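sanity check both lines:
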Amino acid sequence: MTAFAHDEVARAKVLIDLGRIDASRAKLGAVLAADPDNADALMLMGYAWFRTGEYEKSVGYSAAALTAFPDYQSALRVLALAEQELAHLAELDSAERQRHYDRALAAATRSAELDPEYVENLRLLAGVQSATDPAAALSTIDRAIEIDPDHADLHRVRGSILRRGGISVPGAEAALREALRLQPEHVDATQELALLDLDRGDREAGERGLRLVAQWDPSRADFVRATLAAVEAEAGREQEPVFTHMPPPQEARYLPETPRSNWRVWTALVFGAMVVLRLIFTAASTPSEPPPPRPLPSRYLPTPVVPPYLPTGLYPPPTLRPWPTDFPRPGLTPPRAPFRTPPVTVPPRVTLPPRVP
């Protein structure tokens, strides 16, 4: 592999991890155009098609990578994953489903044989074995947990095997909670625990977990909505009352039915008709044009009239007498003499005799 091809393959792997599948395919296509037997480029191209759900193309590129390098573990793992998904899609055809499972199991087993201490090989093998042999899958995943006990996804796989195989519900819950302890936002472990809660009848906890799954991974929103709708429909069927037909007693079986009185219906109809007629008459008597507004009276301030005295029966009116002429009235100042400036006296001028030398 040239340096250019090595760099392009490394960039394509980063683009796949970032979710930019089309850009990674473009780089891998350029590498394969120059080197069609590049096993790394073929394996990554198969993984890129697997990420977009094109499992047939993923199988083709993975098989081509294995043709160029038969013991390529990454290509074996991609091939096992793609064959496993094709087996899930072939549920209606049992023969086709079994054929894909056999191919997935063979690829996963070969990958685990090449490196039995690599936990990813054991995890993949346990996932494939869980569809047909839960006991063997549990043994495989336990061996992987012994190698790496702090791997959160290994505990998730163990809990999934115990739940789906119906082996042990408490064991499945313990394994899933251990996975969440190691990785609190593990989406797959949260989803498995929510499904376990729904299986046990804890609808509130199951719905809360599924909503967290949709929040953390929006690509699973359709699965969450479909699961919640199925749970709601199942709850509605359980709450729907079941009515069984009970035949009438023997003595009343052949008696004619008594017609039911409809006086409540007739009363409601008559009352409704009266209300409608009243509304019609009110609308007809209402003039089409509103009356003109009444003019407002002009505002004025009345002048208070104070009588000279308060005529009451208890106090007689005062006797008015003439005011003395030589007595000043209250509030009036008597006239004063006009102010005159006093005369100024100028002293006479004195003439001094001349001074004798």
About this structure: The first helix runs from residue 3 to 17. The CA atoms of residues 77 and 108 lie 6 Å apart.
